[in-house]
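Closing statement on the MV4 sub-project.
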Amino acid sequence: MFKKILIANRGEIALRVIRACREMGIASVAVYSEADGRAPHVREADEAVLIGPPPSAESYLKGERIIEVAQRLGAEAIHPGYGFLSEREWFSRAVRDAGLTFIGPPPEAIAAMGSKTAARQLAVAANVPVVPGTTEALASADEARAIAEQFGYPVLLKAAAGGGGKGMRVVRSSGEIASALDAARREAKSSFGDDAVYVEKYIVGPRHVEIQVLGDQHGTMLSLNERECSVQRRHQKMIEEAPSVAVTPEIRRAMGETAVRAASAAGYVNAGTCEFLLDRDGEFYFLEMNTRLQVEHPVTELVTGIDLVQWQIRVAAGERLPFRQEDIVPRGWAIECRITSEDPANGFLPSTGRISYLHLPSGPGVRWDGGVEVGSEIGLFYDPMLAKLIVHAPTREAAVERMHRALLELTIEGVESSRDFHLRVMEDEEFRAGAIEIQWLERRLDSLIKTKPPAHITRTAAVVAALIADRDRQAPKRITAQSPASPASDAWLRAARLDALR
Ligand code: MV4
């Protein structure tokens, strides 16, 4: 086993990996930018090295510099987290060429899954169902029209190098194809430097369901089952859960076997995720593979009982997975809310400032994977995700109630956050019924943001506010000394304030 690991990341995921290292008796090395000198990951790691100015391109993306730090400090392996260098083929190769271990897939597997058309070709060869369409880039609008006639409208034009929905255009009739192809090409060129575009049948109203896989270096590849990730806005996931209400035991088995086949065909090792669209008839289609640990990995950890980060480290060190597929039995229900410094009432505008007060939820079945604390400066250099709030309970209903309770306990002062938005989602009848698909959130966003908290909450909030005001009149000094006296009453007050603003 490794004695020392360097973590090439920041925020909550750096802390998550540091925690795994500490539990395994492995020393951790943090790297940080000039903006992160006081960040928790710097303090919690055993050692920390400044690697450059705040912009990622000058710090967290400086792969060669990070490899030099690892060598200088005697770290044997590098964990890339997610984002930053995690899916760069060249970085996985450079780490290996430096005689170190990349805690993630080999560069060849990243390359095999890197291009969408390459991944589609690999999937087709491995008998993995993909959305009907082409596996080659389109030569012309005429070719696109001919293919669309074959599958029927609507069709979807996609960038071969794509990701995050960039370079995607829905086409509903043959008259729209030429201009849609031009637009998709332009967007693909400017986003990826590659204007190759291909065509697929457009699946209407699907869910985004993904399968977590975990493979060792000895040929074992396991499915750790599905995550439901349909609640997303502009291709940013907001809420994830495991399992999915739409996945039957039969779909779970078939989708899991399919994901294992796709990953094995790519020569995959370590933790990875196969993304699928699941349509209303229970048919699923492989979209792409994410060749990294994902933000939402905790929901899988909670329902499978498997520590994904520890196993990433173990398989990277050459250990064998001791589980068989039959050992992977989902237990209960887990939900994750991404707590971001964005203002839902203001089009999710990123909010900046210093966290002046933070009360964290706790109690049964609650997990907080956070990267900030009181005093943290939230700027615009990095991703706005502050933390992930994850709950685990025996059933979906209980998990939704538990998340609602945990969100009520959460108080963040100093920056706007997505907390109240998540509360409204947990109170939403459609969400509670599990009636979600990839367009659900954007369709419901306005009504969710304008929804009032349930009457029993505003009533209690009004009573608490009145009591506090009364106490303040009778004993102002005592209240001042205790301020902010009670995080719980503060949470109720927030609800009351929210109501008053409407
Ligand atoms: C699709 C689709 C419908 N039909 N492909 C969006 C990003 C990329 N990863 C794939 N995406 C989609 N591909 C076909 N043939 C709908 C989407 C899609 C989507 C997929 C997953 C999660 C959220 C989404 C939001 C909008 C569209």
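The longest strand covers residues 221-233. With this model delivered, the sub-project is considered complete and its resources will be redirected to Aim 3.
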